[in-house]
Design a protein that fits this description.
The structure holds two protein chains of two kinds.
Chain A: H1 8-13, E1 17-21, E2 24-29, H2 33-42, E3 45-48, E4 53-58, H3 62-69, E5 83-89, E6 95-105, E7 108-113, H4 118-132, E8 137-140, E9 144-150, H5 154-161, H6 165-169, E10 177-180, E11 183-186, E12 195-201, H7 205-214, E13 218-219, H8 222-231, H9 267-272, E14 277-284, E15 295-298, E16 305-315, E17 320-328, E18 336-341, E19 344-351, E20 356-357, E21 360-361
Parallel strand pairs in A: 3-13
Antiparallel strand pairs in A: 1-2, 3-9, 4-7, 4-8, 5-6, 6-7, 9-12, 10-11, 11-12, 14-17, 14-19, 15-16, 15-18, 16-17, 18-19, 20-21
Chain B: E1 9-10, E2 15-19, E3 25-29, H1 31-37, E4 40-44, E5 51-52, E6 57-63, E7 67-71, E8 76-81, H2 84-87, H3 91-94, E9 102-106, H4 118-128
Antiparallel strand pairs in B: 1-2, 2-3, 3-9, 4-6, 5-8, 6-7, 8-9
Classes of the chains: A alpha+beta, B alpha+beta.
């Protein structure tokens, strides 16, 4: 039996093609994944991301607990509503999950974690708290829904949908949030476009979705969500990193705070291990489509060896295939590599990512 | 039914086959197949002159979602390919039955009899949906 979000019936009425997405019955697209992708880059679209889990952690010294739990440093969060992207690591330095943590008050922090890892995350956090912070109350919030509204016109369309929101959200910077009535509104996203992620009571989600739709926000499926995040160069848990890979070899060194004295789970292991690989962008020069798990063949000299594509696909904005690949650290931007697709070796160039930001191609 | 033309034959692997008056056969993928795959972004066609066995992998259609092999519904020699699809793969989504992939000169036209007719193909789709 697949799990469903509060918007399941709404997706069906909107003619979504529904798929089993890690045990959740979710919309892949509502007609055309390509059209939906462009809709977000050019105007505004909305995603049901209620399969992701909001976890509230309340109690005394919650900040202390998160200092030890997360690889990024929650001491960077000084303003109410400020958000931070972080990995949660195993003692060996593997990635249990990547998440966003919001600072609400000194006795309340909010996490948003991935759907596929939610049960594992809750078990891990509960166990850690049991050892070092038994006073904390850890509450999975399945009573909430989450809708991401993304695109250059996303914010203005949200303002038109919820009266009063413009005044309280207009001056939010990226990675800031605010609570307004029953809405939690954060200027975050997973598309490389401006917009909000809005958390609200599950029961209110269908009516809110319909209002956004009436304001000209198109429904977008998880298919386009994946091509948008790939163009934006954002990691996908389970593909670009997992418990067997560490964040320093997954393009996430910027999220790991090794500078401060603070100790956190996984820190010791990360300091011991030499970094031999990295994530890089690839742009396919020949015709074809890069896909995850294809081998990257690096020719010549000491770099001779192999890498592997972790996420690949067609970039609707560039009209060309792009990928993230795990390769030896020495490989440089501009180098040419071959990718083994079926029985053929196709040429690709190593490029910096993101590939696309705010509607503009960067490669 | 509009999406399964009665004049065509179908392979279980979701190709359609049309017998032409000149003795060649034209092959494409069905409307149902393109619907399952989603927006097409790349097509790899066989070389003209290649000999294909029945059920041999001979082309690839890739959608935003995934790559999918196309099998030759009958044996024969490739006499033409629809190169227009290489720059406009979305034509398969627009009309799967005019966006043909390749044309064969059959080795044994009798193999056509083993293919499904429209009713048989409709039944197959219904079965696969369960």
């Amino acid at each position: 039996m697949l799990k469903t979000t509060p918007l399941n019936e709404t997706h069906r009425v909107m003619q979504a093609k529904m798929v089993d997405f890690g045990g959740w019955d979710m919309p892949l697209h509502y007609g055309s994944q390509l059209d939906e992708h462009h809709q977000v880059r050019r105007d505004a679209g909305m995603f049901d991301v209620s399969h992701m889990l909001v976890v509230d952690i309340r109690g005394e010294n919650v900040r202390d607990f998160l200092r030890g739990l997360l690889a990024n440093n929650v001491d960077k969060l000084t303003l109410t509503g400020k958000a931070l992207y972080s990995c949660m690591l195993t003692p060996e330095g593997g990635v249990i999950d990547d998440l966003i943590v919001y600072f609400m008050t000194e006795s309340w922090f909010r996490l948003v974690v991935n759907a596929g890892t939610a049960d594992k995350d809750i078990a891990w956090i509960t166990r850690q708290a049991g050892q070092s912070a038994p006073q904390l109350e850890i509450t999975p919030r399945r009573d909430l829904a989450m809708i991401a509204v993304q695109g250059p016109n996303a914010r203005s369309k949200v303002w038109a949908t919820i009266p009063g929101t413009q005044a309280v959200t207009e001056f939010l910077k990226p990675f800031q949030s605010v609570v307004f009535e029953s809405y939690f509104i954060a200027r975050t996203g997973y598309t490389g476009e401006d917009g909000f992620e809005i958390i609200l009571p599950a029961d209110d989600a269908p009516a809110f979705w319909q209002k956004l739709h009436a304001a000209g926000v198109a429904p977008i499926g998880l298919g386009a969500r994946d091509t948008l995040r790939l163009e934006a160069g954002m990691n996908l848990y389970g593909q670009d990193m997992d418990e067997t890979t560490n964040p320093l070899e997954s393009g996430l060194a910027w999220t790991v705070d090794l500078k401060s004295d603070r100790d956190f789970i996984g820190k010791f292991s990360l300091q011991q291990k030499p970094v031999r690989q990295k994530l890089t962008g690839l742009l396919l020069l020949d015709k074809g489509i890069l896909r995850s798990h294809q081998k990257v063949i690096i020719k010549g000299g000491e770099l001779s060896g192999q890498g592997e594509i972790t996420s690949g696909g067609f970039s609707p904005t560039l009209n060309q295939s792009i990928a993230l690949a795990r390769v030896p650290v020495e490989l440089a931007v501009g180098d040419e590599v071959s990718v083994l697709i079926r029985d053929r070796q196709l040429a690709a160039r190593v490029v910096n990512y993101p590939f696309v930001r705010n509607g503009k191609a960067l490669v | 039914m509009m999406s399964i033309p009665a004049a065509l034959k179908y392979a279980k692997s979701h190709e359609w086959v049309k017998a032409e008056e000149d003795g060649t056969v034209t092959v494409g993928i069905s409307h149902h197949a393109q619907e399952l795959l989603g927006d097409m972004v790349f097509v790899e066609l066989p070389k003209v002159g290649r000999s294909l066995a029945k059920s041999e992998e001979c082309a690839v259609v890739e959608s935003v979602k995934s790559a999918s092999d196309v099998y030759s519904p009958i044996s024969g020699e490739v006499v033409a390919v629809n190169t227009e699809l290489e720059s406009a793969p979305e034509k398969i989504n627009q009309d799967a039955y005019t966006a043909w992939l390749f044309r064969l000169k059959p080795t044994n036209l009798g193999e056509m009899d083993a293919l499904l007719d429209a009713a048989g193909y409709e039944k197959l789709i219904a079965e696969e949906a369960h």
